[in-house]
From TrEMBL:
This is Glycerophosphodiester phosphodiesterase. Pfam families: GDPD. PANTHER family: GLYCEROPHOSPHODIESTER PHOSPHODIESTERASE, GLYCEROPHOSPHORYL DIESTER PHOSPHODIESTERASE. It comes from Tigheibacillus halophilus. CDD domains: GDPD_SaGlpQ_like. Residues 68-320 form the GP-PDE domain. InterPro entries: GP_PDE_dom (IPR030395), PLC-like_Pdiesterase_TIM-brl (IPR017946).
Length: 327
């Protein structure tokens, strides 16, 4: 009897300890949210207050409204297969200010660089990323599709390319580059933000000593951005919006966006000179996507955009250089 009581007490003690560890954790609902995946409490990464203290830094440096950020969309994806290390290497060589990376999460909870939820467009297989293990995804050919689709840009080495994990991209390029990261379909992957923040923390890409704008996080999902803002308010956020018609936002909508984001990213065809001017007057950055033709780049810069997503970073540099030279 005494032994049973003793064992009961030990088990209770262990359970108590485990529940104490959960004070800052919650279980999420996806497979990737179970078990070891715990949600960080707000501000555990930097110990910052919930004030958006770094937003004053948006007036200088990378986030200055006076510069035109050159955002290499999926890497220099006009020249190499999107979201591969080759595409990001090319973007670096072409002096893109940012490597743009879309995120998907594998069945075994690893973040990989991929735009689509399904691997069929950009690899030699099919199936949803969330149904495939990392091993299965890493075995795919992520380059031959590009050689087939763009024979004038084809390189035999591209057929050896694989789908990189986010950490692989960061391990390769480190802090020499800046990252503009998009949480894709975050509502289906509740652990995505936590996993992303842990990776950024591990690689010292967030925090007090990191220049503001070293990493920008973007999403079409307001909830995803609010989660980032709550947990790591030092990271500048861009609210992506796809306007079906002419871009328009009410004053309350602008105020709402300004409460958590430094700007918006929008489909460039929807924009007007008036809209861009109003957003700039409201103190928001504006980054149109995806702009590949020099005439469009020039028009948007004339209107006052503060950065452009492009598959051709070299073209954007040429346009900006030409305009600065009075061209
Ligand atoms: O992130 C900006 C732009 O990339 C959004 O469109 O579909 O290319 O991710 P998408
Ligand atoms: Ca994107």
């Amino acid at each position: 009897m005494e032994l049973r009581m003793y064992l009961f007490a030990v088990i209770c003690f262990v359970l108590l300890l485990m529940s104490g560890c959960g004070a800052e954790a919650r279980m999420t609902t996806s497979a990737c949210g179970s078990g070891a995946v715990a949600t960080m409490a707000p501000n555990t990464l930097t110990g910052m207050t919930t004030d958006r203290k770094n937003f004053s830094a948006a007036k200088t440096g990378l986030l200055s409204p006076n510069r035109i950020l050159n955002i290499a969309h999926r890497g220099a994806s006009g020249y190499a297969p999107e979201h591969t290390l080759a595409s990001y290497q090319k973007a670096k060589e072409l002096d893109g200010d940012y490597l743009e990376i879309d995120l998907q999460m594998t069945k075994d909870c690893t973040l990989v660089a991929m735009h689509d939820e399904d691997v069929s467009r950009t690899t030699n297989s099919d199936g949803k990323v969330s149904d495939l293990s990392l091993d299965a995804i890493e075995a795919l050919d992520a380059g031959t599709w590009f050689n087939d689709e763009y024979p004038y840009q084809a390189e035999s080495a591209f057929s050896q390319l694989t789908v990189p994990t986010l950490e692989e991209v960061i391990d390769t390029f480190g802090s020499e580059v800046n990252y503009y990261i998009e949480t894709k379909t975050p509502s289906e992957e509740p652990a995505m933000v936590d996993t992303l923040l842990r990776i950024l923390q591990k690689h010292h890409l967030v925090g007090e000593d990191v220049p503001s704008g070293k990493v920008i996080i973007q999403s079409f999902s307001k909830n995803s951005l609010l989660e980032v803002h709550q947990k790591e308010p030092s990271i500048p956020l861009i609210q992506l919006i796809h306007f079906r018609k002419k871009a328009m936002l009410t004053d309350p909508e602008v105020d709402e966006i300004k409460s958590y984001a430094v700007g918006i990213g929008a489909n460039y065809e929807s924009l007007s000179k008036e809209f861009v001017g109003e957003l700039r007057n409201d103190g928001l950055l504006i980054h149109p996507y995806t702009v590949n033709e020099p005439a469009d780049m020039k028009r948007l810069i004339d209107w006052g955009v503060t950065g452009i997503f492009t598959n051709y970073p070299d073209r954007l540099h040429d346009v900006v250089d030409g305009m600065e030279g009075g061209g």
